[in-house]
Fold this sequence. Notes:
Blueprint: H1 2-18, H2 23-35, H3 39-55, H4 65-78, H5 88-121, H6 131-141, H7 158-161, H8 186-211, E1 225-227, H9 230-237, H10 243-257, H11 266-270, E2 273-275, E3 289-290, E4 296-305, E5 308-315, E6 323-324, E7 327-328, H12 329-332, H13 336-343
Antiparallel strand pairs: 1-2, 3-4, 4-5, 6-7
Helix pairs in contact: 1-2, 1-3, 2-4, 8-10
Protein name: 28S ribosomal protein S9, mitochondrial
Amino acid sequence: MSSASNCMGVVRRVILLCSRENTTRHNNMSANILTSLSCKNVNVVSNLVTKLSSRLGNVRLSSTVADAAKLASNVSEAQPPPEKKINKAMLAYLERAKAHDSFILKEKTDFQIGKRHLANMMGENPETFTQDDIDRAIEYLFPSGLFDKAARPIMKPPEEIFPPKKAAEFDLNGRPFHFLFYTTRPQYYEMLYTMVEEMQKLNAIEDDMISQNVAPKEKLDMGASDWMTHLELEKFLIENVDEKHYEYFLSTAKRLAEHPWAFMAKDTIMKYRAPRTSLIQSFDIPDVEYDAEGRPFITVSDCMRKTARGEVTVKGKGSGKITVNGKPMYIHFPRAQDREQVSQY
Length: 345
């Protein structure tokens, strides 16, 4: 029944088209009708259209599937689909992203070339030359007397030197992906939103436990970690955070961490804490010895720097004076900066 009714509907539409004046448009529309049906229905309608066209001499109709497809293709070629326009903001982003990717690619290439040259200078295999080897080679080849480590020469991969770029935050039409896009700090405010949401959940849990007269059985252990510094937070969010917003982040995070049931939100809290780095290098501490006067001392041998060798003796209950080969330190270290480096240890 459905096939027959569909066929009759198509025939009625073809007759209606035939009664109009624009014959070319009739043919195109009838072609679209034929091609939109299944193969079974098209064969039935083709037979009906053939009989109909024999009685209508003033109109030529497409009676085969091939003719219908040909007409449909002619219509589609005559009217190409309009090109989708790209928003200006997206075009600007694509240009900046392309320039940044080209810059990073060039820097990576230069880094690999420099790494191979450095390995050859040190007599090492470039294929197995690691970042630790690079750091040791730079420290050996470019000994620096600068006090601040950040001012000393380094050689790191470009990804660690240059800050990452954000991905596109809007589609081709300029619609933003993030629901907090127009706050200008979507990641920052989403972080605060998450903290407040966790706090509300903990408050509900606390109210429920108080009604049952149940106290928290454990306390949040944040271990050897600290809240992210201002710079670390900016790198984590890939957004600029001023001092005011950073202080607000700290106050919100501390309030969440001080909640009696904060251990239930440990994953959220620890996400914004950084582990403390140990500044003490592991090495074998020599045994304490005593001189004839009973004063303790420690002697460290084989202290090496390039071709120089030395031996250091640290005595307890001393005067604080430093001598080199029995002479005052300023004779061997005339520069004040060198003496400061010796004195800091």
